[in-house]
Amino acid sequence: MSAPPAVELDSLGYAYPDGHRALDGVTLTVAPGERVAILGPNGSGKTTLVLHLNGVLVPTTGTVRVDGLAVAGDDLPEVRRRVGVVFQDPDDQLFMPTVGQDVAFGPANLGATGADLDRVVADALALVGMAGAADRPPHHLSLGQRRRVALATVLSMDPSVLVFDEPSANLDPFARRELVEIVTALARTTIVVTHDLLYAAELCPRSVILDDGRIVADGPTLELLADAPRLARHRLELPRLARLATEQPGTIARG
Amino acid sequence: MSGHHAHPLLDDVPIASAVQRLDARVKLVCLLGFVFAVVATPAHAVLAFAGYAVLVGGAVALARLPLRVLARRMVIEIPFVTFALALPVIGTGPRTEVAGVSLSVAGLWGAWSILAKATLGVAAAVILGWSTAVADVLIGLDQLRVPRVIVMIAGFMVRYLSVLGGELQRLQVARTSRGDDPRWFWQGKAAAATAGTLFVRSYERGERVQQAMLARGFTGRFPATATSATSATSPATTATRFRRWFPALLWPALAWVIAASALLR
Questions:
Q1: Cα nearest neighbour of B206 on chain A
Q2: Interface touch A109/B217, C-beta < 8 Å
Q3: For the whole model, what pTM was predicted?
Q4: Which CATH superfamily is domain A7-254 in?
């Protein structure tokens, strides 16, 4: 028998207490090691979907499984260790007075102490290029640095699945590229939720389009991005410069 | 959140001094001992308060705390003691004439007691804040076995003060950019709305922070190492422990001698 999928959503539906249906039958399978982008306009249910992957929200209908484990009940603590969510605003994620204490929070919850804990913290910070920042308070760091530290806070729990909610939001071009390099080097199952299509293309070979709580397309990222009319139907579009370059090769070069 | 907002209070690196070198735990215990002595002293023992003032003055000098900084930080006391000023006017009992105004004697003693005790206590706390990094105060509280949830709440406050300050600043800039320029109290409607917005945003941020904590395995109990990780405290022998604690504890001990002499008189 082959290994179970890293992430398996089966007819996932979720309605907020006010009755608004944020997710309406989402079915998606992500293989171990795969990097998949979930593309969608604002309000399409992307962040709601993220909160289901580690059981912060409980589905109204359907199921979520991670490495074959149900995201519910007794398996929930193990699922939360295996799924590392990097939230959009690092200030929500970095809540301890220093970077080191923050990176230690997750593994300490799992029971790590003393030298083991120190080693895990140092390793996680090294993976995101922030070694030596352990004693700094988060508000002294740039946004790019804070997002990398936020990634370290989940890496310290050794997750098998990484989930990013709008990882490129508000980053300068250099910080965007740094994050791409770090994430691709980590080589773990990765789900990136974004409306930044170029960032999705850089990070993920495969993409799905989420609109109005449903998955409306699933395929290789570059193929999805080449279909401008379909993107437009779902309130997505490539930046004008990128479109020019694909539709009329040489336009930009000619100036 | 773009940009990062340094907070002057939180970012001060304590100036090297005899007080700064003390262990944060020692300073916390000294502060608490001193405040208890001051609070226990009857208001009529005016000489005792003079003695406390000398102790505070000595500590200010040892901590190399500039008087200008001390005065600026003492401002925090004002809202708390304003009401003390009303006591002589609204107090009952025998009255006395001060510059032609009839004032209650008991009220005057009450106002003096609140002012003197608050001022001494706040000054001592300012010395602690001046000479100790905020992170060290938190670690010290944890090592003194203060309930972890209280230390964590204090830690959250420290962490989010700068974030909230940044948010407040952006709200104010947005408000003044659209022509709001309140000069008088009754023009402060927009400022009040800002406060409301800030409250709602903070509440929502609290929810998001909790989601982020749940996502990292938080089960409602703070892990033992969460507050002290990466702060290696060297194991202390009895001798070093004695040297660390003894000279500093003389300070609250003197305060207690003064308090005892005032109480026993």
A1: A92
A2: yes
A3: 0.76
A4: P-loop containing nucleotide triphosphate hydrolases (3.40.50.300)
